[in-house]
Write a structure and sequence with these properties.
heterodimer, A: about 250 residues, alpha/beta, Rossmann fold, six-stranded mixed beta sheet, about 35% helix, globular, B: about 375 residues, mainly alpha, two-stranded antiparallel sheet, 15 helices
């Protein structure tokens, strides 16, 4: 199936990835590959290990065995902040923004400069930072809320802010965990539009339940079930796979 | 300045000036030297409070062991002063002249190696900063790299405070034991016991205090200050924004340790001795209470908290010695339950708005009135 490809050609190459929590294998011998500029959606029933896969890639959870190669760099050995610096960005399921800071400050913290202790003491809010923050704020529909404290934002706005914080990091691989969950219909439409814009020029790994949204954006869909890949391919292919229909779409 | 907004906002500027006028003018002119020396003693705890504001208020790292660093600073200063007071002429009646009296009483016949550098004043001054900084760096690295945090960290710092006291009391020959290091006389040949010296030391301390306030404010306004706040709320988000959370926590903890040590060194100079009773669990918790009462998010609040609670402690413990500790405990509970931001929170939420309204009603239709964007500290 994957013959002829060297792992190097992929942006992300996950192979033989296993993690067990007290003997329970949440992810079991999982292998998949993401190409440059590919939009990959992971779907699967509850407890399939979708979020765990993202946790493993971004270093939040340590793998029991297996390897995660990102541009030839082994991520399983790096710390979370080093993985971010390598170019992997992660958005969590629940919006995690800094509520006691303003929208501007939230975005500024994610600006990829002055990330050491000394660097952050001497960090200057120069024109390049301001310009980039404003640019991103405009993209995430928060340009006129720059001086608002984040705890004043609505749930949807917080999600956008967190997406903005990832954007300003400018990662090569963007991982989104249910980016439209809990949003109103109009917010959902706006978010889809936003995501469609920001996923250009980078690879994206998305977990999402909203099938319409998945169909809109996915290049390729991976169906997880009990920590293993059940099916992989285009949305069309996956939809018609009898195994998938049985465990997931049929219900 | 590499800071973009103003260094102090309007209410902080008022706070800064009010404190400066009180400490530089009102108190020295209105109270006698005995009381002024007491104020100086209270203010040594304000240094600890400023450190706790950064570390606890901003960084969310509650340390119940600041007495350790206060003590390390104080002991470093006391060791230098003690060696100066233990010259061969002063100690010729001892069986081994030239060593501190408590060593002689404990049958120690030569100066221990770790005391020797303290013959030099510059070394002692450096040690006041470096010893607590290195010690807090080791504790911080051991804890934060392993992601020990929250209440576990607080308990461990408390254990360290207990260990430190036991160590000092147990090693009487090297540390002066439970009595501490007493009978300190001169600093670089200058008698620190005279009234004149006490005036000078008071002003030196206040200048240092304002230096620390400015340093803390500087840290607070840099991106590092905002990362501390961010870390307190969403540690994972900071980590996944590419920062090593542990390093930032270590920095905040070390900064708090150094501030506490400066306070401890001044304490030794003001009071004239240092003992393990300022190192252990109880003083460490009291330091947290001063900060909580003043307001853990406010640098000026911490100074006021240290002043007011200690003033209350002196007045009340003179008349009701048994009740004081209960009073302190009740005060802490009341502050945590009713006023989580302490006195500075009460000021910012209740008094400041009233003053603003009063001023606004006196000058109606001031068209170019610009409200401060940042909340009052």
């Amino acid at each position: 199936m994957r013959v002829g490809h060297q792992p190097k050609d992929f942006l992300l190459a996950v192979s033989g990835l296993t993690v067990s929590f007290d003997g329970f294998k949440a992810v079991n011998d999982l292998s998949f590959y993401v190409e440059e500029n590919e939009i990959r959606v992971i779907i699967g029933p509850n407890g399939a290990g979708k979020t765990t896969v993202l946790d493993l890639i971004c270093g939040k959870t340590r793998a029991t065995s297996g390897s995660i190669q990102f541009r030839g760099q082994e991520l399983t050995r790096l710390r979370e902040n080093e993985i971010v610096q390598a170019g992997v960005g992660r958005k969590f399921q629940t919006p995690s923004v800094f509520e006691d800071l303003t929208v501007f400050e939230n975005l500024e913290i994610s600006y990829p400069r002055g990330r050491t202790v000394f660097g952050s003491l001497t960090f200057q809010r120069d024109d390049a930072v301001k310009q980039r923050v404003e640019e991103v704020a405009e993209m995430i529909f928060l340009k006129d809320r720059l001086n608002t404290y984040a705890d004043q934002l609505s749930h949807g706005q917080k999600q956008w802010l967190e997406i903005g914080m990832l954007l300003i990091q400018d990662p090569d691989l963007l991982m989104l965990d249910e980016p439209v969950a809990g949003m109103s219909v109009s917010e959902r439409a706006k978010t889809a539009e936003l995501l469609n814009r920001i996923i250009k020029d980078r690879s994206v790994l998305v977990i999402e339940h909203d099938m319409k949204f998945v169909e809109d954006i996915a290049h390729k869909v991976t169906v997880l079930h009990q920590g293993q890949i059940l099916s992989e391919g285009t949305m069309e292919h996956v939809k018609n796979d009898p195994k998938v229909v049985e465990v997931y779409l049929g219900h | 300045m590499i800071i973009n907004s103003r260094f102090f906002n309007r209410s902080e500027l008022i706070g800064f000036l009010a404190l400066a006028v009180l400490l530089f003018v009102i108190l020295p002119l209105s109270v006698d030297i005995f009381r002024l020396n007491l104020v100086a003693k209270y203010l040594t705890y304000a240094f600890v409070g400023i450190g706790l504001v950064l570390c606890w208020g901003y960084g969310g790292i509650l340390s119940l062991g600041q007495g350790v660093f206060f003590g390390l600073g104080g002991y470093c200063m006391a060791m230098y002063l003690k060696l100066e007071a233990s010259s061969v002429e002063n100690t010729k009646i001892q069986s081994t002249p030239g060593i501190p009296d408590f060593m002689d009483w404990n049958q120690i016949t030569s100066l221990p190696f770790f005391w020797k550098p303290f013959h030099s004043f510059p070394v002692a001054l450096m040690a006041i900063i470096l010893v607590p900084a290195i010690f807090s760096l080791i504790i911080g690295a051991a804890m934060f790299k392993r992601r020990v945090g929250g209440v576990y960290f607080a308990i461990i710092t408390q254990a360290i405070a207990a260990i430190m006291t036991i160590l000092i009391v147990g090693q009487q020959g090297y540390t002066g034991g439970i009595n501490g290091i007493t009978d300190l006389r001169t600093l670089h040949g200058w008698d620190i016991r005279t009234d004149h010296a006490k005036y000078v030391l008071y002003f030196v301390e206040v200048v240092l205090l304002f230096g620390c306030i400015v340093a803390a404010q500087f840290i607070r306004l840099t991106k590092l200050g905002r990362i501390l706040v961010a870390m307190r709320e969403q540690e994972d988000r900071v980590r996944f924004s590419g920062y090593s959370v542990a390093n930032f926590k270590i920095f905040a903890f070390c900064a708090a340790a150094v501030f506490a040590a400066i306070g401890g060194a001044m304490f030794t100079l003001e009071v004239g001795f240092m003992s393990p009773s300022f190192v252990g669990i109880v003083p460490s918790i009291e330091m947290v209470i001063y900060t909580a009462v003043g307001g853990r998010m406010s640098i000026f609040g911490a100074v006021w908290g240290a002043l007011l609670v200690n003033f209350a402690k002196t007045s009340l413990s003179e008349s009701f010695p048994q009740l004081w500790l209960f009073g302190l405990g009740a005060l802490f509970i009341a502050v945590v339950l009713a006023f989580p931001n302490g006195l500075s929170g009460i000021w910012a939420d209740h008094i400041q708005p009233r003053i603003d309204r009063l001023l606004a009603s006196r000058r109606p239709k001031s068209t170019n009135y610009v409200a401060d964007g940042a909340p009052a500290e």
